[in-house]
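ugh ok fine here u go
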Amino acid sequence: MIHETDIAIIGAGPVGLFAIFEAGMLKMRCHAVDALEEVGGQCAAMYPEKPIYDIPGHPAIDAYELIENLNAQAEPFSPVYHLGQRVEKLEIIEGDMKGGQKADPALSPASSAEQEARRGSKIYKLVTSKGTVIHAKAVVIAAGCGAFGPNRPPIDGLEAYESTGGVQYMVTKKDAFRGKRIVIAGGGDSAVDWTLSLADVAEKLYVVHRRPKFRAAPESVSRMEALAEAGKIEMVIPYQLSGLEGESGKLTGVKVATLEGEEKTLPADHLLAFFGLAMELGPIADWGLNLHMNHIEVDPATCETNVPGIFAVGDIATYRNKLKLILCGFSEAAMAMHAARNIVFPDTAYHFEYSTSKGTGF
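structure:
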């Protein structure tokens, strides 16, 4: 069976979900593919209870609640989800949705004139790891970090503690750490945000970082420093992880050391290591798109890639002065869908209307 749609969206994280909404507002139907078994991307899979502070109109909102709201926002437009599978192949075929199709030799760059000439004359064929086939008039890649996994610290015996939950790389249920001794290692937003979130449930919380400066939002760092001054958390700086203590997978302590070799052991039930994600584009790397450091280069005005009709939004997209913020991904999704509308409805004039006047009626 071949599924036919206006827009195929690769990735059903927060930006992909908002792209579905924007497409629906422009009367375009969507099919979305995601490798995870549920929508929400990293927000659902890695930190559902993590508060997010920079969503407009929400002083703070947990990641799972944000996903629930975005899912509800997209629901009126009846998107079709293909979950638990990833897009393995993407090719361009000529002709309309009903037949007369001819394989395009490659996904190749085109000049502006060539792009305009080719708009509306191509169909994008996506084939997933489960054999699902989708034909679409345009494609939006909202794949976040691509296939991702945590960067693990180089500590001997790590696996034994991973299997028992002594060492973790995400927090799915905040209450699981209530009354526990926790060591948080890392210097980015995840480490700082979870420090703020878990400080009121942990019996003892240590923050380990190799230098005093953190790569996180300044306001969040200030709040963390205030907790340290109040004695609610302990900053272990400048130290880095050097080993683990325990028996039969039960963690009892985390060894840390300075660059000069000074060592000490922090009594702990859990180590939360936040050293970022290892990003792998997977099949996307073979689709003829302009890549820069595992990201897809796009036109910032439309988020279109070098291949006409294929757009990239969210964390996977890059351009000059790009900010990796969910709210920027939302803006990119809106721009991409307005540009894609010219491909889906090439002969139909569009008169912009605000949502307050047009509503969400399809």
